[in-house]
Amino acid sequence: MKNKQFKSGFITILGRPNVGKSTLLNAVLGQKISIVSPIPQTTRFQLKGILNQQNSQIVFVDTPGIHLFKEKFAYHLNKVSLASLVEIDLILYVVDVSRPPGQEEKKIIDVATRQKSKVVMVLNKSDLGRKYLNDYIELWQGKIENIQTQDPLIYYIPVSAKTGKNIEKLKDVLLELTPEGHPFYDKDTSTDFPDKYRAADIIREKLFLKTKQEIPHSIAVEIKEIQEKERSVYVLAHIYIQRSSQKKIIIGKDGGLLKEVGTEARSDLENIYKKKIYLDLWVKIEKEWQNNSRILQDLGYWIK
Asked: Which pLDDT tens digit goes with each residue over 24-36?
């Protein structure tokens, strides 16, 4: 039975790549759940972050950005994003008002207006300027006029996930729109993301930040083994790249870049496990991993 004193619901975060969806999720939760980098395709899973408050539990579903590319991997990212719209209570449609709308925007608006859920448009990165803010609003309104349907959009909210501006206001709005219900997770649970995928994402984040625009889309990380003991955790990870030249970049001069990645990833993992981490990193060449269904499945990027 529903607890009339308690609110709970599922909210999907939707948007094109690199609009700040993961940064927004971390800001709303007040802790780092989803990895962040300025590189598109950073988020590759459907990741849930759980906001537990005194009389509510809101489950946020962070998704990969909607892509227009045709390869199997991009197909997977779109499939994960669209699957997150099933049986949810609200859509957070996140846009980056510091840059103009992209081609993906029309696809996202088309998807969002075909759902039964209400929509809140989050006008993110307002700290970088609002030059294109009205362009997004007009694009949405133009779509509604063309399809002649009831507008599911309830609020426009300018925020800065990076600085925290209007994040508390956004949380108040989301709580207002969350239905009455019961908690879906234990009150101490902040995410349902499996440990091995979370560890892989942390390593991948550090690689993205270190290599910047050079090879991020060619990188994947698979956790081959996790051995947890009373005071320590051993983690064996394989880093997949597509060419031997990329392997040299990942390893770095005298192994320097890989050592930096290991040091920074180890620190994040120790914050999660609260134990000493022994991180064993190996770089492997897999030329066609983005188009190989078996490899994608082994990495947790399920395609059916």
From this structure: 998 999 988 776 5
Range of the domain at 95: 7-177
250 lies in the same domain as 277: yes
pTM metric for this prediction: 0.69
Domain-terminating residue out of 115, 148, 177: 177
Mean pLDDT to the nearest integer, 192-199: 81
* Same domain (yes/no): 234, 294: yes
- Residue identified by tokens 């492997």 is 284
Task: Supply angle C-alpha 216, 222, 223, rounded to 5.
Answer: 135
For the chain, report the end-to-end CA distance as a whole number of angstroms.
36
Residue 21: inside a domain? yes
Helices (H), the chain: 21-29, 72-83, 103-113, 133-147, 167-177, 195-211, 244-251, 256-273, 293-298
Q: Tell whether 162 and 223 lie within a shared domain.
A: no
CATH number at residue 270: 3.30.300.20
Neighbours of 113 (CB within 10 A): 19
The separation between CA 282 and the C-alpha centre of its own chain, rounded to angstroms, equals: 25
Residues 68, 37, single domain; the answer is: yes
Residue 301 in tokens: 């990027």
Query: For 106-115, what is each residue's pLDDT tens digit?
Result: 888 888 888 7
Quote the DSSP letter at residue 65.
P
Angle at 81 between CA 209 and CA 205, to 5 degrees: 15
Angle between helices 167-177 and 21-29 in degrees, nearest 10: 80
Give the Å distances, CA to CA, from 66 to 15, 115, 273. 6, 16, 32
Query: CA 278, CA 291: separation in Å to the nearest integer?
Result: 32
